[in-house]
UniProtKB/TrEMBL annotation:
The keyword ATP-binding applies. Keywords: ATP-binding, Nucleotide-binding, Transport. Belongs to the ABC transporter superfamily. This is Gliding motility-associated ABC transporter ATP-binding subunit GldA. Signal peptide: none annotated. The keyword Chaperone does not apply. It comes from Lutibacter aestuarii. InterPro entries: AAA+_ATPase, ABC_transporter-like_ATP-bd, Motility-assoc_ABC_GldA, P-loop_NTPase. Residues 3-228 form the ABC transporter domain.
Amino acid sequence: MSIEVKNITKFYKDQKALNNVSFSIKRGEIIGFLGPNGAGKSTLMKIITGYINSFEGEVLVNGFNIVSDKIKAQKSIGYLPEHNPLYLDMFVKEYLFFNAEIHQVSKNEVSKIIEKVGLFPEAHKKINQLSKGYKQRVGLAAALLHNPEVLILDEPTTGLDPNQLIEIRNLIKEVGKNKTVLFSTHIMQEVEAICDRVVLLNKGEIVADKKLNELKESSHQIVEVSFDFKIEKQFIEKIPFIIEVNNLHDTTWQLIFDTKKDMGATIFDFAQEHGLKIVQLNTRNRNLESLFRELTS
Ligand code: ADP
């Protein structure tokens, strides 16, 4: 096991932030650590990375106890904190050389990591001149410099624009091919896009720990579709496998189907038959969606 979290309970004064949390992560897994704000995600990440030392329970990283064998455990961790503490006045390379020195890593590694995280075009700049997406890349580069087996990322995509978001997601996926990755988010779609498994935390407790495939097993699909013209509900109700039709507004509909078959093509055929154009269409799985709603409501 790369990470073993055993019966962790954490109090801040008399407020319980984590209540008897346990799970383990195998080598090579990408785990999405999901939960609404205040669920306890950051607290648990700080415990796993050794930044919080007072708690009940036990954490092993790569077999090393994070309290009694902290240095060995921390050597196998790359950590990107939520408020990535970059030194804004430093140049990108200067900052990474500084980190290389801390980790006693050869300076040659810096140019390799710059290439790996796609920082090359911005590598000559000062950190405060970079966009939020590139700042995140600098943080990731610093976390990856010592080639850790375990990567812990606290809300790595918060505040990124849609393009940056896709780039950072792809980067995490790429890095995750040969590392164990635990990353936190409060966005369900994020988990769908990147993870093998999801651990859901709510009010300091684990409420679900499942493989993404299992969560997707539900055969109920939710499709949101906008047409270019208004259409009567009774026409839509004729589409096969449909069990619920909701008019979200004007020309936008939410359709729920009871089938595992991808209904996209059928809806396109339906639109063509009725002389309509599809302006927008997206499909979600009801199980994931309802889990997310349950957690955030
Ligand atoms: P998340 O990362 O899921 O948003 P946190 O771990 O930051 O959740 O917070 C969990 C709970 O612990 C929240 O109620 C938060 O207010 C509280 N908390 C977090 N850090 C501290 C702290 N340093 N002192 C006191 N309470 C804290």
